[in-house]
Design a protein that fits this description.
157 residues, mainly beta, Tick-borne Encephalitis virus Glycoprotein, domain 1, four-stranded antiparallel β-sheet, 1 helix, 15% helix
Amino acid sequence: MNLCDIMPRITFFICIMLLIVFSLGCIDSDKSPVSSNNDDDSSLPILGNQFNLKVDQTITVKPDNIIVKFLSVTGDSRCPSDVVCVWAGQVSILINVTKNGENLGDITLTLGVSNPDLAVKNVSGYNVKVVAVNPYPISTHKIEPSEYIVTLIVSKS
């Protein structure tokens, strides 16, 4: 048996191995930031508990069925973590709140300002508060809208 007889088999074997490796690399995990697989109930969408949302994601907060949708980040002037700034900056988000089919409106919440009251809004007897906006900026990476994840709390006022 000479090398010319073996080459087609070796090439076929290499192609199959590459196909398997690339196929495994394309397996996508669940990327839902709303619920985590740990035993910490703080991520459940229940009144008074923190929960996470991505842009254009909607969640229903139980037991009062408050529907919250993260619409967008309207401004992000936070100082990148790898830069020294005179001002820490701020980040503002826009969310929509609905209850029992009634649109209670879009609200803007802002973190990082000297007035912490801008991080909380009262909507029809419920306080909606932004706790965190991630990722935190770094100077070498532009944050795409789809990368943002907010941490919110909805509670009765």
